[in-house]
Structures are given as structure tokens and as C-alpha cells.
Amino acid sequence: MTKASYNHIYNALVADDNDIVGKLAYSQYKRQKIEYILAFKEKHGELPNDADLAAFHDMSNNVSVLERRRQLASELLLPLPTVSESPQRLPEGSLL
């Protein structure tokens, strides 16, 4: 990719080195880019060039898409339900 066509999506998603949500969002972007490239190769028999990737990059840099990526990434970090340290027991003789 030439300097003129450099994609700044990492900077758009990741605020700083401690921005875990942004880094997860960026990894989602990279996964989708790989899927796009593989689908393009399957359909056209060759890898996409910079011009072929332009539509993907344009869509990926859309403000609402960037916000959605961050939202989905933050949902991945929501606390998971924990198992109680003392599990509830059924009374003796109870049937399930």
C-alpha cells in the first residue's frame, strides 16, 4: 500500500496504548478485512489490489461503522456471570 493510500483506521479506533476496546475493535476490522480478501480471491481468482480494497476501506472508515465496532468490542468486555462459590443444593430426595 502506498503512503498516499495509507488507511488510518487504527488511529480512528485506538485512542492510546491502554485502549483495550479500541484494540479489540481493530482486531475485528482486521478479521473482516481478511474475510473480504479471501472472498474476493474466491470470486476473482486473485488477490485484490489497492483499488479493489478502496470500497472496503471507505465503508470501514464510516463514522457509524467505527462506532459500531467499538460498541461490539466493549460488549465483549462485559463481565461474565460468575459461578457462586457455594453452589445451591437440592434438598435430599428432590427429583430434577
Which features characterize this protein?
mainly alpha; 4 helices; 57% helix; elongated
Model description:
With 96 residues, the chain is mainly alpha-helical. The chain has one domain. Helix content is 57%, strand content 0%. The protein has 4 helices and no strands. It has helices at 9-13, 20-44, 50-60, 63-76.
Topology:
Layout: H1 9-13, H2 20-44, H3 50-60, H4 63-76
Helix pairs in contact: 2-4
Measured as a percent range, the helix fraction is 55-70%
Shape: elongated
The computed structural class is: mainly alpha
Mean pLDDT reading: 86
> The biggest beta sheet, please?
none
Taken in chain order, the helices and strands follow as: HHHH
Number of domains: 1
Give the total of beta strands: 0
The portion of residues forming beta strands comes to under 5%
Task: Please sum up the structure shown.
Helices cover 57% and strands 0% of the residues.
